[in-house]
Design brief:
This protein is α/β, with parallel strands linked by helices. The protein contains eleven helices and ten strands. The protein has two domains: about 30-125 and about 255-320, D-Maltodextrin-Binding Protein, domain 2; about 125-225, 3-Layer(aba) Sandwich (D-Maltodextrin-Binding Protein, domain 2), CATH 3.40.190.10. Helices cover about 45% and strands about 20% of the residues. Strands 1, 2, 3, 4, 5, 6, 7, 8, 9 and 10 form a ten-stranded mixed β-sheet that branches. The longest helix has 24 residues, at about 5-25.
Length: about 325
Amino acid sequence: MDRRQLLAGMAAAGATMAAPWARAQGNYPDQPIRWVVPYPAGGGTDVIARSLSDAMRQSLGQQFVVDNKPGAATNIGAEQVARAKPDGYTIMSADNAVLAFNEYLFSKLPFDPSKDFTYIGAIGKFPLALVVNPSFQAKDFKEFLAYVKAHPGDVNYASPGNGSPHHLAMELFKNRTGTSLTHVPYRGAAPAMADVMGGQVPCMFLDLASGLSIMQSGKVRVLAIGSAQRSKLLPDVPTLAEVGVSNAEVFAFQGVLGPAGMPGPIVQRLNRELNKAFSNPDVAKRFNDFGMEPMPGSPEQFFSMARAESSRWGPIIKAAGVKLD
């Protein structure tokens, strides 16, 4: 057998081995897709995943099975997806924890957020707002800042838990303003909000998804919002930048990941369907109800944004000395 015959044989063998995988990509999806949510059922991340997957099902012609895998600050679900077969039939909702926080909050992770996932597309972001109990002495942001500066360490703030976006938002605020407040972590947003409304703890950063109704009802006073522009849902609330706190945009974000090594055509198909789902009336209503800003874009844009957030939050977490292990 001469060299040309050998090369031809190798090419034919490669084509034969690749043919089933190529056919699988061409027929994608031909079975249900598992969508891992690293939080309990019924929460905001779960609701968004179910809304999006239902809209995408209509275009893809296949069911999505939402699989809730809570625990270890999202690490359990994320590790399962990182180790899954990269065939497009296992994807997940990922947020700040998976993509920007946990690599600094834990001494060791069972995955590398920059290498062990395929980035499919961003979903959106929930701005966080600084709120106080209506009876608190400060009536606006200027008074609040003056008060906490005059009483270093005396003002408590609530959060849904150590390492949550709400906790770290206040750590960033403290870093940017040179203030000192004392953290009171709770087991979830609901009890934290209840104690701020009740006056047991005077303030917290609160996301619009959890707290929009109490913000609009006046059960808490909203001093500033951590978005780049004012929220259409709270048009009278200034941004942190407007009240003089620069480089302090604070939000919780979500996107869709799969295991590393997913085929490009499948990634592009899922990205296309994800972006299309944002215009679905049911999805658009859900986003609006949650105060969530959709973030359509490419996989590359999602990767760049997530890594930029990681770089932004790393120094804040390290300076605050926050650890979850």
